Amino acid sequence: MPTIVIEGPPLGDIEKKRRLVAEVSAAASTAFGIPVAAMVVIIKDNPPENVGVGGRLLSDRKE
After folding, report:
1. DSSP string, 33-62
2. CA geometry: angle at 41 spanning 22 and 3, to 5°?
3. Mean model confidence pLDDT for the chain
4. Could you tell me the CATH superfamily of domain 3-60?
5. pTM of the predicted model over 0.85
6. Are 58 and 19 in contact (CB under 8 A)?
7. Cβ–Cβ under 8 Å, residues 4 and 28
8. Of 1, 19, 21, 30, which is the most buried if we count CB atoms within 10 A?
9. What percent of the chain is modeled with pLDDT above 70?
10. Domain ranges of the chain
């Protein structure tokens, strides 16, 4: 059972999450050649104040 972990900014909208899970699951099903029902997708939301790039928080780079 493949497990796919997606880390990124908060999507905020449950419909966007549903679409993301459906599309990623379908693509992985095709790539692996196994049913969509075998796919596990975990979404990890990371707010900008919890992510640093180049030594700075993303929340500080929006200036």
Report:
1. TS-GGG-EEEEEE--GGG-EETTEEGGGTT
2. 130
3. 95
4. Macrophage Migration Inhibitory Factor (3.30.429.10)
5. no
6. no
7. yes
8. 21
9. 97
10. 3-60
